[in-house]
Amino acid sequence: MLLDISSWWNSLVLFEKVLWGISLLFSLLFLFQLILTLTGGDADSFGDADEYADGDDGADNQYFTIKNLVAFFTMFGWAGIAAYSSGLAKWLVIILALIAGLIMVFLMVLLFKNISRLKHSGTMEINNAIDQVAETYLFIPSGRNGMGKVHVKFQGGLHELQAMTDDSEDIPTGKIVKVTGVINDSILLVTAYTRF
Fold first, then answer.
1. Rounded to an integer, what distance in angstroms lies between the CA atom of residue 178 and that of residue 129?
2. DSSP-derived 3-state class of residue 174
3. To 10 degrees, what angle do helices 14-38 and 90-116 make?
4. Does the structure show a pLDDT above 50 at 116?
């Protein structure tokens, strides 16, 4: 079998050898990249260039990444082999392979751009608690004379946060309150909640 591969390789012209070399090399890199992505590794960590590009806020779409480079040459090689095998002229093979590679990069950029919209930071934004109903955990002194604590649900979770009130009476433990604002970006301002 090894002789069959060797004789097949020797029967190819230089142009075909280049196309097959590009196809096989970049297909292996593409497979390696895919395995790293599926196992939680980052295939873009081959070099530091993408880290600098990702930090650059000046470009919305990152066309020049290692993932896109590998995808481009993988598609370029296989499209070139297919076009050359069908008997097209070399110049037309190169043009078709370039177009196929560019289409692949465009599709990947579009895919990753849409996937990036699905990201959620998970960081608690205290301002999202405003207008939410909460329950006092530790009593809250009246007239901002001290802090208590409340349990409030927002952003899909239950949070225990410090709270103050402008009400003229203390708010006892277990009382339902409404969050009306945020003080110093860390303390909730609450008022006794009355249902109508």
1. 9
2. coil
3. 10
4. yes
Instruction: Give the end-to-end CA distance of the chain in Å, rounded to a whole number.
Output: 85
CATH H-level superfamily of 126-192: Nucleic acid-binding proteins (2.40.50.140)
Q: For residue 96, give Cα distances in angstroms to 5, 24, 72, 76.
A: 27, 18, 12, 8
Closest CA to 62 of 117, 98, 105: 105
DSSP 49-111: HHHHHHT-TT-SS--SSHHHHHHHHHHHHHHHHHHHHTT--HHHHHHHHHHHHHHHHHHHHHH
Considering the chain, tell me which residue range(s) the CATH 2.40.50.140 domain(s) occupy. 126-192
Q: Please tell me whether residue 168 adopts helix, strand or coil conformation.
A: coil
Q: Per residue in 124-144, pLDDT tens?
A: 888 889 999 999 989 899 999
Categorize the per-residue pLDDT at 165 as very low, low, confident or very high, splitting at 50, 70 and 90.
Answer: very high
